[in-house]
């Protein structure tokens, strides 16, 4: 095995702790008889456990060895795969090197482990190659990644030669891209950890672009909501769709601030937009206030990728003594570096003006020909003005609330006459949370609980 791995050129830049690299070193030690059998078995089991961990995280099935190799192929960012993502396959000398590497992977796909298993009296590789996974709820794994890997693995395993293998894989790159950005809808970030290595995907599943000091962690259990799930707010949804449609098609689009009462569907709208446009290359990166200092690093990591990124900030607001908003202002508009055309900021807030104002802010008011001007107030309001599109989500009126309850109850299959339903809903909202779409959903959930 290690002799095959040593032939890799473009696909060979893997962290030293990558499973395939580690297995290659173990097989080298086995052939050179530099370690005793008990040590070799222990080291093999350690790597098998890691394959099982990856397989559990992504719900791989049937042939976990081939699933793992497929996962490596579609997450390996190298000059060829990134070019394929942007431009598709182009003729050139690099194709020779690529097919060399893919012939290696094709050999590894059908690697015969029987000799080492017999000699070390183990059967773990045979089990991996004929595996039956335990079913698990979708929220426990990333179904989007799982389905793609399982399907592609079967196709690659059936390729009769390297040319077919090449065609299948490059078609995948063209359709879905490469790396974790190609596979996942949404991410969070954190400072780079030691387990990720120089770059790539670490043991924790975090993805670190080459040269970056931050890591992207895929959000595996993002809600599968759609805009139709949000009852009402048709005008608001229409504005959001129009702006996002322009964005994904390469037309000028605005940063968006969704503001209004709590529980009205602001965050749900953004999640639904990401779900709706994922197949057209839209991705979401969720960040928190304390991470605003990393905004420039985030943008640097994604600006040259063939995807559209929404940087999502939920429940955005600032207290009087907080200055993180200055990082945000600089990125949105006004910094030295121009924001790339494939990045937008979508934020939600319960406050229309984002930054808390006080009467002290008015102490520097100046009068000039009847016009009042306060430098402090202008400084705070300028953040909102840098969002090109602001969309208000007001708390529903009683009639609208009743309509939301009726629709949600019908969708949930609750058989209750409307008069009784609304009477109970009105009691509920007076006791819990007041009138809002969130309260309506919580009420319907309560009815489902007591009827189960």
Give me a quick take on this structure.
Helices cover 49% and strands 11% of the residues. A hairpin with a 5-residue loop joins strand 2 and strand 3.
Topology diagram in text:
Layout: H1 2-6, H2 19-32, H3 37-58, H4 64-75, H5 79-87, H6 94-109, H7 114-120, H8 124-129, H9 143-157, H10 162-176, H11 179-183, E1 186-191, E2 200-201, E3 207-208, E4 214-218, H12 234-248, E5 256-260, H13 266-277, E6 282-286, H14 295-302, E7 308-313, H15 325-332, E8 343-349, E9 366-368, E10 371-373, H16 375-385, E11 389-393, H17 398-411, H18 418-431, H19 437-451
Parallel strand pairs: 1-6, 5-8, 5-11, 6-7, 7-8
Antiparallel strand pairs: 1-4, 2-3, 9-10
Helix pairs in contact: 2-3, 3-4, 4-9, 5-10, 6-10, 9-10, 12-13, 17-19
How would you state the average pLDDT, rounded? 85
Q: What percentage of amino acids are in beta strands?
A: 5-15%
Q: Give a short account of the largest sheet.
A: 7 strands, mixed
Rg to the nearest angstrom?
A: 27 Å
């Amino acid at each position: 095995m290690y002799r095959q791995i040593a032939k890799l050129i473009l696909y060979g830049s893997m962290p030293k702790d990558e499973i395939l690299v580690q297995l290659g070193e173990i097989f080298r030690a086995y052939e050179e008889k530099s370690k005793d059998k008990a040590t070799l078995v222990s080291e093999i089991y350690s790597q098998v456990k890691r394959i099982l961990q990856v397989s559990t995280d992504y719900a791989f099935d049937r042939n976990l060895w081939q699933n793992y190799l497929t996962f490596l192929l579609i997450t390996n960012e190298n000059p060829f795969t990134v070019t394929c993502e942007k431009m598709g396959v182009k003729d050139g000398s690099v194709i020779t090197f690529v097919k060399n590497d893919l012939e290696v992977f094709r050999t590894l796909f059908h690697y015969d482990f029987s000799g080492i298993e017999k000699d070390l009296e183990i059967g773990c590789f045979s089990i991996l190659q004929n595996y039956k996974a335990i079913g698990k709820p979708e929220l426990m794994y990333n179904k989007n990644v799982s389905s793609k890997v399982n399907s592609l693995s079967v196709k690659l395993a059936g390729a009769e030669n390297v040319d077919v293998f090449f065609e299948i894989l490059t078609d995948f790159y063209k359709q879905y891209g490469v790396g974790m950005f190609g596979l996942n809808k949404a991410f969070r970030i954190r400072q780079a950890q030691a387990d990720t290595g120089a770059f790539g995907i670490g043991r924790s599943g975090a993805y670190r672009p080459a040269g970056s000091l931050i890591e992207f962690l895929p959000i595996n259990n993002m809600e599968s909501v759609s805009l139709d799930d949000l009852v009402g707010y048709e005008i608001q949804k229409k504005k959001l769709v129009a702006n996002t449609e322009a964005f994904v098609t390469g037309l000028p689009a605005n940063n968006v601030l969704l503001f209004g009462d709590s529980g009205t569907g602001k965050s749900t709208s953004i999640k639904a937009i990401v779900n709706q446009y994922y197949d057209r290359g839209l991705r979401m990166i969720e960040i928190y206030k304390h991470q605003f200092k990393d905004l420039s690093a985030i943008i640097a990591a994604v600006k040259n990728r063939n995807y559209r990124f929404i940087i999502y900030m939920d429940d955005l607001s600032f207290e009087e003594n907080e200055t993180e908003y200055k990082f945000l202002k600089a990125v949105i508009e006004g910094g030295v570096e121009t924001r790339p055309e494939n990045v937008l900021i979508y934020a939600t807030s319960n406050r229309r003006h984002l930054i808390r104002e006080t009467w002290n802010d008015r102490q520097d008011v100046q009068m000039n020909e009847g016009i009042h001007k306060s430098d402090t107030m202008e400084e705070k309001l300028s953040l909102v003005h840098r969002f090109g599109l602001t969309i208000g989500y007001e708390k529903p009126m009683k009639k609208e609330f009743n309509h939301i309850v009726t629709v949600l109850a019908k969708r949930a299959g609750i058989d209750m006459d409307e008069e009784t339903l609304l009477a109970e809903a009105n009691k509920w909202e007076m006791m819990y949370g007041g009138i809002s779409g969130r309260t309506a959903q919580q009420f319907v959930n309560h009815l489902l609980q007591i009827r189960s």
